[in-house]
Every structure is written in C-alpha cells, then in structure tokens.
Design a protein that fits this description.
CATH superfamily of the largest domain: CofD-like domains
GO molecular function: LPPG:FO 2-phospho-L-lactate transferase activity
Number of strands: 15
Pfam family, one: CofD
Largest sheet: 7 strands, parallel
CATH architecture of the largest domain: 3-Layer(aba) Sandwich
Shape: globular
Radius of gyration: 22 Å
Number of domains: 2
Strand content: 5-15%
Protein name: Gluconeogenesis factor
Number of helices: 16
InterPro entries: CofD, CofD-like_dom_sf
Distance between the termini: 26 Å
C-alpha cells in the first residue's frame, strides 16, 4: 500500500495535562510527505476490477485535483470507482458563513472546504461510519439562540446525533469539540455566534488549535471519518495563520476577501446562495487573484505565502492533473498562483485536464472556454504579479485537454482553443441542477477521465 501524507496510524494515549476526556488520538508525526507509485497500468470502470485489493492498488491511476469545497464534491463518489489514489488540493482562504465566525474569533486558516471534502471521502460502509459522518456533517439552526442550545446539547453528549457512535469515537470527538468551546470561552471579549455552525468545522478548528498544526488536524479528521489511506486532502498552504484572498479587477478595483469576490453577503451568516442571479455582477472582469495581509486593503499589502511542499511533491508524481469545475478565481486559482506550482505543472508530460463549468457565475460572466484557459495560464504564470517571478509558458503546457458538459452555457470557441494549442475537447453527458444549472453527469465525466488517461499512456 502506498505511503500516505496523512502520517502513521493513530496512537491512543493519556495526556499529562488537564483535558476534558481521558483519551484521544494524536499522530506521532505531522509530516506531510507522501508518495504515489508511478505505475502506469490503468483500470476500466467494470466491477471485475475491484475484486482484488492488492491488484486494484497497483492498477489505479493517481490524480491531483485542484478544486474548492463544493462543485467537485458531487463527483467524489463516482471517482472512487476509478481510483482512490487522489490528492485533493484545496484553498484555505474561505471567509464566508460559519467559517468566517471561527476565523474572526479564533483566527487561523479557513477549514470549511477541507472539512467538506473530508466528509465526502469518509467511510459509509457501517452504521457507525454513517453516524460519525452524520454528526460531523451536521449544521446548527439559523436562529442564534436555538443554535447555541443545540450546540451545548451536542458538547454534553446528550444529542440524538451521538446515537450509533461508539464510546472511543464519542470521547475523541467530544474532546475536541469541548476544546473548541474552551477556546471560545477564553476569548471573553468576543461573542461567538453559533448560527448555521458546522459541527465538523468546530471539531476541525479544535483539533488544529490543540495540535497547533493544520496537517495534524487533517490527519485526525481523516482517521475519525475513516478516509481511504491513499486519498490525500492537502491544504494548498499549510499554515496556522489567517489567509486573506484579494483580487484586482481590470478597472483597478481591489476586492478583499473570498466571499466578497464570489458571493458577497454583507457579513450575514445565512447559507450562501450560489445562484448566479442572486448576486450583483462585478464592475469589471477579474484581472488576477493574490493573497494579502489580514488587515490589508490595497496592493501594498500583498503577501506571498509558500505552497505546501506536499502539493509540489504530488504534482511531480501523479498520472493526471485536473482543474475542477467550480468558482474559477476563488476556488481554483488560489492554488495556482503560488511560487513553484506553474514550474512543476509545465514540466509534466501527463494529462492536464480542465473541467469546464456548465454555466457562468459572478466571477466568469462573459468568459468563453478559451477565457478559462487564459485565466488558469495567467495564474500559473503569475503574469500580473511581481515581474521577477513571472513565467512565460504557453497555455498547452498547463492544459492539454478540455472536458465540457453537454448543453452548457459557456461557449466552446474551438478555434481560439486551437490557437492556444488545445485540440483535445471532450463533450460528456450533463444533468440540470435546479440551483446552479447544467452540471456534469458524474459517471460520464469519470469515464471520460479514465479514457483520457488511458489514451495518453498508449
């Protein structure tokens, strides 16, 4: 079995300092190093390929997926049928909803997208696994008083969500929920609002603060939710600090904060409505995405965080690189603008696949398929950033295949794509989602990815 970046197996021990429960799990190492073998034998999607676990491990292709925490989630279950050897690279700059409240009071990176992907990857094979997934996926009511009352009921172990969770899991999860509550109480000057709060986010935040390590928190969450050991969930930046995303529009406007760029809510903790029609259009198209200091308001406050070394390691080994559908500038590009990412991707002789959105959103209004390609190329080249760190690679060094949902709203300008050196455009079946419009049919999309990988190897 391939070594994973999530660390060794859990060790149970008793702490030598006061802690709300007598036992909990901790990794003996927070190392993020990992490896996928470079075996180039691939499976098709027939059931006969899952009969032998050892053979499956050898034959599965390895993928790295750049995505956010929402759009690609609907594909995860179907992707498991092709391979579980997937490195999911996610941003840590989300500042909307209950995540914003955690960051406001306790600081640190945003964990909402990571928690969301971990839950999608979690085990569902037993009744206890389903109970743990249900607990960590639960959201509190929108009413603040009702949310606070339910939260206390959960922390005290009296809520019905604990039914089906065995004592070892219960004590482990409650320990970190209680630690999260303790951290809130210690910030007496800040009043925490539990409205619409995610129990998984609270657990994640408690673990991160306790271990003082985002990697260790991911390790713990992955073990508690029983994610396959060969599936990696990697923050694009491994940090304990708060990260703020900024964007520069073509008219010179600077917007601070991922949520203000993508789905402005005016600070409301209401669930984000991601329908394009529900938010006002931007005054100008987005020129670039960058990181800024937590108190910054303009280009003078731009900062340059370091990419997670595990991301670069996986990029240098995987059999296929995927840019997932979703919020192009706030979910995908934050993982691409970091120094070192474009250098490695451009050097890799492997399928580099862009999954085109089925409809426009606030960030991409008016863009064609070639416009998406240009945006990704500019992000990886860091075209509009520090001139000393810019690359001059052409688009097909970053993207050599495009997968398009049938009947999507975004124009596929084949001639412009050809001028960018992209000739492989695959149209796959789609379905209509009443909230967001045209989306990929998961089975059709994964089959297309499997075919692209196989064709490349041949």
């Amino acid at each position: 079995m391939a070594e994973t970046s999530l660390g060794p197996f859990l060790i149970c021990y008793k702490p030598s300092f006061p802690f709300p429960f007598s036992s909990f799990f901790t990794p003996s190492s927070s190392s993020s190093s990992s490896s996928f073998s470079s075996t180039r034998v691939f499976i098709t999607m027939s059931s006969s390929n899952v009969t032998n676990n050892k053979q499956q491990q050898v034959e599965q292709p390895s993928l790295l997926v750049f995505s956010g925490g929402t759009a690609f989630n609907g594909i995860v279950e179907e992707l498991k049928k092709l391979t579980t050897r997937v490195a999911h690279v996610l941003p840590v700059s989300d500042d909307g909803g209950s995540t914003a409240e955690i960051v406001r009071v306790l600081g640190g990176p945003a964990v909402g997208d990571i928690r969301s992907r971990c839950l999608r990857l979690s085990d569902e094979s037993t009744s206890e696994a389903l109970a743990v997934r249900r607990l960590l996926g639960h959201r509190l009511p929108l009413d603040a008083l009702e949310a606070k009352a339910e939260w206390y009921n959960i922390v005290e172990g009296e809520h019905s969500l604990w039914i089906g969770v065995s004592r070892p899991y219960r004590e482990t999860i409650r320990a970190f929920l209680a630690y999260f509550q303790n951290q809130i109480l210690r910030r007496s000057s800040e009043s925490f609002c539990f409205s619409n709060g995610s129990i998984g986010n609270f657990f994640f935040a408690g673990a991160r603060i306790f271990f003082q390590s985002l990697d260790a928190a991911i390790f713990l969450f992955s073990r508690v939710s029983d994610i396959p050991s060969e599936s990696l969930v990697l923050p694009v930046i491994s940090t304990n600090d708060r990260l703020t995303l900024g964007c520069e529009l073509w008219d010179g406007t600077i917007i601070r904060g991922q949520n203000e760029i993508s789905h402005p809510t005016g600070g409301s903790l209401q669930p984000i409505n991601k329908e394009h029609a529900s938010v006002p259009t931007l005054p100008s198209r987005i020129k670039r995405i960058f990181y800024m200091s937590s108190e910054g308001r303009n280009l003078l406050h731009e900062v340059f965080p370091t990419v997670n070394p595990s991301v670069l390691e996986q990029l240098s080994k995987v059999d296929c690189i995927v840019y997932a559908m979703g919020s192009l500038f706030t979910s995908v590009c934050p993982s691409l603008v970091l120094l070192g990412t474009g250098e490695i991707i451009s050097s890799r002789p492997c399928p580099k696949v862009l999954l085109l959105n089925g409809s426009h959103d606030r960030e991409t209004c008016g863009l064609s398929a070639s416009g998406f390609v240009t945006a990704i190329t500019d992000a990886l080249n860091r075209t509009y950033g520090d001139s000393h760190n810019c690359l001059e690679n052409v688009p097909n060094q970053y993207i050599n295949a495009l997968v398009v949902p049938r009947d999507g709203d975004i124009p596929v300008d084949v001639q412009c794509l050809a001028s960018q050196g992209i000739f492989h455009v695959v149209t796959v079946d789609s379905v209509h989602d009443p909230k967001v419009g045209i989306v990929f049919n998961p089975k059709s999309l994964i089959q297309a990815l499997a075919d692209l990988i196989a064709d490349f190897c041949e």
